[in-house]
Please model this.
Amino acid sequence: MGMTPPLNFCTLFDSQYLPRALVLYHSLEDAGEDFRLYVVCFDDPAYQALAKLNLAKMVAIPLGTFETPQLLAVKGQRSKAEYCWTCTSHVIRYVLDTYHLPDVTYLDADLCFYENPSVLLKEFELSGASVLITEHRYTTQYDQTLTSGIYCVQFMTFKADTRGLAVLQWWQDRCLEWCFARFEDGKFGDQKYLDDWMQRFEGVHVLQHLGGGVAPWNVQQYKLSQKSGKLYVNESPLVFYHFHAYKYYRSGVHAFSPNYLISDEAVEILYRPYARALLQAHDELRSINTNFDSGFSNRGSLIIETAKMIKRKALGVFNEYRIG
Model:
């Protein structure tokens, strides 16, 4: 019998997101699946750090190797975040083409895995589809479908077949045309483009497994639990959690997805372990560069921050904790 080929993942980030990306990488390692994580580094410090770390299951790609004339033509017109969104579909295509892969799954760098992702990809394989997308599954009070979309660009699989590449090419073209951090004419960033894929294209599957896509905007709906060292969302194994909008500061304060109600169970089961993993990632990075200091958020003015704190406390979403 032949060996099972590794799962193929890709992502993009700069040195600011590098600690989170290391947590992502190590969580995939701990999940026990053989994989390759292809990374487009959006600044040189991120690339140099990964080159020194030389992680066995990661392939680091410098930005200059990846960028095309078409991307460079729009780069100056977009903010840093908007350019990253513009590039997401192009990173997927670059990895498929350059490494001659049959498929690849894009991951946001602020995901953390608790279970083998192959369970999600098995559902996709059984569907017979060529593209896998995930819903936001918003909790009612956080429903942003109108402005942010039905689906989340967080965990997406594309096969390098006719149907998969047709969807990917369409998405690449749209993101070159328009990809901005504002809601306009039914568009928002790279994400609202996904809204009609089920109608527009053949071969698109929406993930059904409850354990894929738990995030601060939907975790309120679910019962989180821990049994025999495994995490569960309702009765399903938790495969990954999306630590969206997570902030942490040099003072040792971590803001656990402010603006969303995070239960005590979620804090203890998910957020505190993630905070410790981030601190370990910083230690790992300082082992190769004692001056590494990226990843932290900066506080705004005292007046603005105080106003935000008062508002969050009034809404019951003041999720700040000191971790050290």
The chain has a mean pLDDT of 95.
